[in-house]
Each structure stands twice: as structure tokens, then as C-alpha cells.
Amino acid sequence: MDGPLTTLGITRKHLFDLPEGLVYLDGNSLGPLPRAVPEAVARVMQAEWGADLIKGWNLHGWMDQPRRVGDLIAPLIGAPSGSVTMGDTLSIKVHQALSAALSLRPDRRIVLSDSGNFPSDLYMAEGLIAELDRGHQLRIVAPEEIPEAISEDVAAVLLTQVDYRTGRMHDMAEITQIAQAAGAVMIWDLAHSAGAVPVDVTGCAAEFAVGCTYKYLNGGPGAPAFIYARPDLIDTIAPALSGWLGHAAPFAFETTYRPAGGIERLRVGTPPVLQLAALEAALSVWDGVSMAEVRAASIALSERFIAGVEAACPDLRLASPRAPEQRGSQVSFHFEHGYAAMQALIARDVIGDFRAPDIMRFGFTPLYLDEADVDRAVACLAEVLADRLWDNPAYAARSRVT
Amino acid sequence: MDGPLTTLGITRKHLFDLPEGLVYLDGNSLGPLPRAVPEAVARVMQAEWGADLIKGWNLHGWMDQPRRVGDLIAPLIGAPSGSVTMGDTLSIKVHQALSAALSLRPDRRIVLSDSGNFPSDLYMAEGLIAELDRGHQLRIVAPEEIPEAISEDVAAVLLTQVDYRTGRMHDMAEITQIAQAAGAVMIWDLAHSAGAVPVDVTGCAAEFAVGCTYKYLNGGPGAPAFIYARPDLIDTIAPALSGWLGHAAPFAFETTYRPAGGIERLRVGTPPVLQLAALEAALSVWDGVSMAEVRAASIALSERFIAGVEAACPDLRLASPRAPEQRGSQVSFHFEHGYAAMQALIARDVIGDFRAPDIMRFGFTPLYLDEADVDRAVACLAEVLADRLWDNPAYAARSRVT
């Protein structure tokens, strides 16, 4: 390790309610609690719902939450104001984007994805294809084969930018350009990108982007998802999940669906007001933060971690790309006894996670991590490996959520 | 009015955080805040998410919330334990049920509903039909024409039991029997039934039931929806919204979807943990309550209200069925100046709501309403009408959510 870095002055640890002494390297799975959240949610419960009841919808802007919160996420993914809305789960948003994409390419039958995509995206594509029953096929190739697999029969390319296991990162601009040159619609899942790496949906001109908000955006367990559609395209889409809050006049209670203008048409049902209040408060930690600074700090921390682990833990083998520009904001290592080793590490208050068959994952989130955390994580991991602390029956049994 | 009733001993007003002096007759739109909710949600935020972070999924049973909360709702709708799951919004659950119903009747093309159904159910049916593009048609008839409209070409009958405007209630057993005799699949939307009237999904043998939880179940704004599927049927259904949490082994991260056994396969994405925690706490108010008692008290309160209003407000005309067995737990009146009259009433702390073109709605929820509330509501409404308090420009402008 190379002595103290500054993490470029963006450490905002004081804005998070992190347990004393914990090194939390799992913000790529569930971000920690921002201090602003409990009070904001308590206010919505008591001063809004409790005190104003049904009037809360008008008095406290609950109905506009999806757009308001979408506008907080938009700058983090390079989207203009008014082009992102919130709700449901990421899986539902994948369905919406893919359904729209296939309707834009009615004469094509291939959905192209890769084996590094998160399984739920693949499952949702499978489910939609079976429901449509029009001969679509889900074609899954290795991540590095995507560019050459984009042929003229591909209706939609559905990719998660950053691989949830290895952190390998696709080049959004390059792949979007290849997809569109072949006439395919591009859908990006930004679950491991939003708040993790600079994203420019406008610059790459992708048709759709979706993502979750409980990882790097710290919205809490079950925080709602987001969806972006390219503004020049959105008004041409007939939503398949045509719920009343995507209607042009939901409170006119018309019997026939008329889609709202703009991204509002990708809303479905009643917004999850408490979860959105938590997320809105959580997003306040991004005030004045530039994603370029976050990225620089993330790379500095990750490089420091890799160097430290490779020096101290020869049994671990880097699973992430070595070149930082090819990684998202996580670092993964292969280790045969990875599950037990991670349990031993967690028992020492250094929190990462494990993905089968042998991957130890560590997320780097410069808003609340600094060099001292990285050094402590390296030291603990070195101790776990050197002293074979993983070789303990207490760490062998797998819990349900790993 | 006939002197004090007892409301049969089920008033549990002390379990709700109702503003002093307010008569809340809008629990059919958004239930009030149960006192147990803020502490439960604060605990999940701080002692679970904040303190245990990613470990919360295992330590605090977040992943099992949908089944646990479903098991609290099941007895309120006559469903067995393990047959109800939670998540998403009611609109999404309508899509899931209807998509499954159509796949069970691949040779039929009619979706039958009525003009009293909540618009979002109709919109979701429209969206699904357009997405499938296989010649399905949504046939909408008047509510009283449903029995005769159930013909042998009907794939699915999709009805909301209780009309959101008038409170008119379908006979679930009778219509389900007619539907099934014609070979159609029956889907009940219980948005205005669960917690309002006794429901017996097992007894009527309907294939599917769905509902929301922010009305009579008091789960808070944006509380998640529920879905029930008949246990003998569920394992034959291939879910269209095949998200990872409906997978048989979500944490095996397989690339191919394999549905979980039972109702779990109708889960989609990550559960909304904060909203589910609020709902779980809210459902504690039902401990030891029988729906038969609630129904008897609701009828007593509603009859008292109708008698009082009809005696004092001759300009109002009952929009609900007069026979209590044909109504849900709300009473509606037509009044030409209904919107302004409702605003005047609300300004006097008696809260109902309005539905175009001229309907004043009042919900009766015996867990937190008693005869004194009804008498006060009648007296205020009488004053608003007698003194033409509605004839005030301040009450003319319509707010967005009415």
C-alpha cells in the first residue's frame, strides 16, 4: 500500500449511519442507511399520512414523487430532466423496456443478451417471449462475444453494463453504436452502474435504461426501480403494462387507456410513497458530487485493494478485469474456500459477499469509504487467509441470501 | 337516528393515530395510520437496515415478508395459509392473474368485465391484449348484465367485487359458479373487499384474487398488492412476469427460469421491505377480529348514515344499492354540487371523497368509526346542505387527486 490517499475529498461518511468499526464493502448489493432517511420517512408516516390522510396526495406531492425522484437520478446517468420515472422493481422495468423494444422491431425475433447479465433480466425476457408466443428467441452469448453477435435479426440487445459477479464493464457507447447500426434497440440495465460509474445515456443514445436504487443509490431494501426512455421515442411507445398512473388523465377514470405524454406513460400503479420518501432522502447525499470524482476515487480505492490483496493473499485470484477502465466499482476474487473465507471476514466486521461458485465480491463506494477502510479490509483478509480462519465449521453452512 | 349503538364491541380506534376531532370516512381510499406502524418501520430502518445492512435479509426475514404478510391477509379473504403473496401494485397483479388465466384458456378470446370495474383493471387488460396480439377482445358490459354475458367464448371474467363509485357488490359465489360452468376462469379484484366485507375465495373456488392493501387494510400510501391463486392450480401456471424471486432457487443464479412451487412463483422482484414492514404492523389491528362482526357493524353504521342523510338532506340521492347485502362497506350519494359540498364537509373535518360526475363517497370502517362519528358526519352534511355552504368559490377548484 502506498500511503494515505485523499479519496479526492468526496468522503461523506458523516452522511451515513454506519455501525462503528464496520468496513462495508457490500454497497454494491445493499447500500447503507443515509442519516437523512429515518427522519424523512417518519415525517411522511406521521406528519403526512397520519395527520393529513387522503389529503396527503395533494398536500405533500406524493403523486409527483416518481418524476421528482426520477429527476434526482437523471443527472447521475446523463439523462435530461423529465426522462426518468420510478416505481415497481427492476424486473418489471426490464419487462416494460423489452416489451416496448420488441414492439418497435416487429419483424425481428432475436433478443440478445450475455451470460454475465443478472439472471432476473434473462428470466423476464424468457417470460415475455413465452407470453408473446411469436417465435422470439433469447440468444445468450459470452460478454466478449456481444459485438460480433449483433446481427441484422436482433430486435433488442439487453445487457447489464457491469457484471454482478466480476465487475466487468461493457462500453455503453461502443455497443449501443453497433446495436443501432444493425437496427437493434438497445436496453441497458444500470443496476451496478448508477451511482457507481459515470453513465451517459444521452451521449450513447440508447433507447432504454433501467436500474435499481438499493445498491449504490442507498435507497434501502426494496427501493423502487427507475426507467429511462429516450425522449424522442417515448411518445411512440404503447405501454404493455398500461396502469392507471400512466394514463393521460388518471383521475378522469375513463374506461379506455390513453397514455400520458412522456415518461409518465411508463408509470403503472400507485407509487410506493414510503419507499420513495426513503429514496428521495437517500439521494440527498449526491448533492454537489460529480460522478467523475466518484469514479477517480473508486479506482484509487480499488487499485489499492487489489495491490494489497495480491501482495498478502497469494491464494486469491483476481476475477475482475485488471484494467480499471474495464471494471465497474467492485472487485472480485476467485477463491476455492471463498464462502467460508467471506464468513470469517464478516465475523471481523469487514463486509463483502459471495457469489457461487467461488467469487468473493467487494464493492467500492467512495462516499463512505476511504483508504483506512481499504487497508483494514486488506489486513483482515490477509489474516483470514494466512491463519486459515476460513477452515472453521461455523463458516461452512450457507445462509439463504449470500 | 336511533340512539347509541354499540358497533358490536369492535371499535379499535385506540390502535389508530387519528387526528383529534376528525371523522374519517375515506378509509375506502387510504386507511389511516395504525399506531404500530411508525415504530415498526423505524425499527426496520435503524435496527435492521442501518445496523445489520446486507445481513438484514437473513437476520430479519426480509425475504420471507411476502409470504408472512400474505398469511396475515389470507384469513381475511378465506384463503389458506401459503396461498397469498405480496408485492408490486394491484395493476401488476391484475396483469399476472389475467395473463395466467388466458394461458389456461388458449382457445378462447374474450375477456369479460363490467363498467363498474376500476379503470386500471380495464387498462391493464387492454395493454395485455395488445401485447399478446392474438385477437383477444375486452368485452365490457353493465354490472347487472354480467351473468348473462358469460358465454362459452369467455376466457376470463375479470371483476372488482365492490364498485369503487357506488359500493354495489357482486355476488362472488354466484358469478364464479356461472363463469366456471361456462368454462371461464374467474379473477376477483378485492380492492374494496379485503377488510371491508367477508370474502371466501376458497368457498367460491375462484381461480385468482388480487387486491390492494392501502384501503381497508391500512397499509399506507403505496402499500404493496396481494395475489391469491387457487392452490390446486398454481403449479400449472407459467408466470409471464418471471422475476428472480419467483424462481425455485433465486440465489443459485441459474441462467434459465424454473418457477418456485406454489404461490411463490407469482413473486417478481425484490420485496419492498419498508412498505411491507408498515403493512405487517398495520395488519396487527385485525388480531382477534372477525369479518362477520366487522360486516354487521359496517351495515349498522351505513344504515344509520343513510337514514340520517335522507332525513336531513333531501337534495342528495342514494347512489348505492339500498339493500345492505348488495353494498360493500361504502355509501355514495349523487349530488349536482357534490364536489364543492365535499370540500365544504372536509373543511369541517369530516372526510369523504368525490368521484365524477356527481358522486359523494363515504367509507365505513368499524375498526375506528362509531355511531358518534356517523352522527357528526350527518349533522355536518346537513349543515353544508341546509346553509348552501358548498356555494363558495373556494370549494369550486378541483385539486388533482379528488
From TrEMBL, chains A, B:
<dbReference type="InterPro" id="IPR015422">
    <property type="entry name" value="PyrdxlP-dep_Trfase_small"/>
</dbReference>
<comment type="pathway">
    <text>Cofactor biosynthesis; NAD(+) biosynthesis; quinolinate from L-kynurenine: step 2/3.</text>
</comment>
<comment type="pathway">
    <text>Amino-acid degradation; L-kynurenine degradation; L-alanine and anthranilate from L-kynurenine: step 1/1.</text>
</comment>
<keyword id="KW-0378">Hydrolase</keyword>
<dbReference type="Pfam" id="PF01041">
    <property type="entry name" value="DegT_DnrJ_EryC1"/>
</dbReference>
<dbReference type="InterPro" id="IPR015421">
    <property type="entry name" value="PyrdxlP-dep_Trfase_major"/>
</dbReference>
<dbReference type="InterPro" id="IPR000653">
    <property type="entry name" value="DegT/StrS_aminotransferase"/>
</dbReference>
<dbReference type="InterPro" id="IPR010111">
    <property type="entry name" value="Kynureninase"/>
</dbReference>
<keyword id="KW-0663">Pyridoxal phosphate</keyword>
<protein>
    <recommendedName>
        <fullName>Kynureninase</fullName>
        <ecNumber>3.7.1.3</ecNumber>
    </recommendedName>
</protein>
<comment type="similarity">
    <text>Belongs to the DegT/DnrJ/EryC1 family.</text>
</comment>
<dbReference type="Pfam" id="PF22580">
    <property type="entry name" value="KYNU_C"/>
</dbReference>
<comment type="function">
    <text>Catalyzes the cleavage of L-kynurenine (L-Kyn) and L-3-hydroxykynurenine (L-3OHKyn) into anthranilic acid (AA) and 3-hydroxyanthranilic acid (3-OHAA), respectively.</text>
</comment>
<comment type="subunit">
    <text>Homodimer.</text>
</comment>
<keyword id="KW-0662">Pyridine nucleotide biosynthesis</keyword>
<dbReference type="InterPro" id="IPR015424">
    <property type="entry name" value="PyrdxlP-dep_Trfase"/>
</dbReference>
<comment type="similarity">
    <text>Belongs to the kynureninase family.</text>
</comment>
